[in-house]
Amino acid sequence: MGIAGVRLSPGRPIVVYLDSHVELSRGEGYPLAWHALDRLLPYVGGADIQVNGVLGLRIAAIRENDLHLTLAETASRLILRGVPGTRWEDYLDERWKSMATTHDLPQWKSSSFTDYERQDEQSHPLVRGMEKDIAWVGAGLLRRIALFHTSSSAYSTRSWMSGSEWIFELDTRRDVRLDHDTLLARLTDPVWGLPLRIIDHHCTCDGPPLENDHIRQCTYDMAHSDGPGPGLQFRFRWGRAVYDKDARGQLQRLGADTGWLNRVLPTGTQGSRGEVAS
Contact at 8 Å (CB) between 183 and 148? Predict the structure, then answer.
C-alpha cells in the first residue's frame, strides 16, 4: 500500500508514514513521495476537463520530511511523513515543470476550489457523490490500516471503486492458511471497528482441493450497520502467487518486515516465479 504506519494523537492531525519507495516493473526504485504527489495532487490532463487526483487537495505546509495537506476552504489537515531526506520541494518543482511539457494544468496552488474542479464536480455528480458518501469508510480504514498487516493472511491487497462499491482484493498463497474471519471480525468489532455489517457472502473455504493454477475466492459484501448506502466488497483469494514473479524478493527489497514475510510468504515451498513446488 505504500504506507508504513499511521499515528493518531488526540487533537492533532493524522500522520501517515510513507514507505521509502516502490518498485517499477523493470525493477527500478521509485520514491514513494513522488508517487504520492503523482496520484493525489489535482490536475487537468490536456483537453479533458476531468480533474485527476483529489478535488480540492492543497499543500498547507512543508516541514522537513512532512508534507501537510488540507482541503480547500476547510480547516482539515493530514500529514504525509516521508523517509529522512525526502525532498518534497524538489519533487513538487519537478512535478510542476513536467506538467508544463505535457500541457497539463495543475490545480493545487489555488486557495479555493478552481473552476475546473467545480465543473468536474457538476459534470460527474454520481461519481463525485459516491466518493463523498463513502469518504467515512476511507477515513476509518486509514485509522485501522494496520489490520491489513496484522489480521490478514494476504501478502497482496489491492482496491478500486466500481459503481457504488469499493472493492478490496486480498491474495493469500495456497500454502498459507486462508484467514478472512479475523480481519472481518476486527473491522466490524462493536467497540474498535467500523459501523459495518455483512449483507451477503459466498465462502469457498470448504471446497475441493485446488488443481493447477486455479484460484479460490471467498466474497463478502458489506454495508453500513444502520442501513443501505455505498457498499464494500472484500474478495479473499487463495491460490498461486499473483503477478507471476518473486513477490517475496520484491517485498524484501522494499524493506518489508521479515516476521510478516515469514507468515504470509514462507520460504521453501515455492519456486522463484511464485509457483507452488511439487
Answer: yes
Retrieve residue 265's grid coordinates.
Answer: 510468504
CA distance 253 to 248: 9
How far apart are alpha carbons 49 and 274 in whole angstroms?
42
Q: Is 55 left (phi over 0), alpha (psi -120 to 50) or beta?
A: beta
CA 266-20-179 angle, to 5 degrees, is: 30
Which residue is listed with cell 516476521?
Answer: 259
Q: How far apart are CA 171 and CA 135, in angstroms?
A: 25
Q: Does residue 69 contact residue 78 with C-beta atoms inside 8 Å?
A: yes
Distance CA 209, CA 205 (A): 10
Instruction: Find out whether 18 and 32 touch, Cβ atoms under 8 Å.
Output: yes
Q: 25-80 pLDDT, tens per residue?
A: 666 677 899 989 999 999 998 666 789 999 999 999 999 999 999 999 999 999 99
**What's the grid cell of residue 174?**
495456497
- Give exposure, 195-212, as e/b (b: 16+ Cβ within 10 Å): ebeeeeeeeeeeeeeeee
**Longest alpha-carbon distance in the chain:** 60
Q: What is the pLDDT of residue 244?
A: 53
Give pTM, 2 decimals. Answer: 0.83
Q: What angle do CA 224, 227, 232 make, to 5 degrees?
A: 35
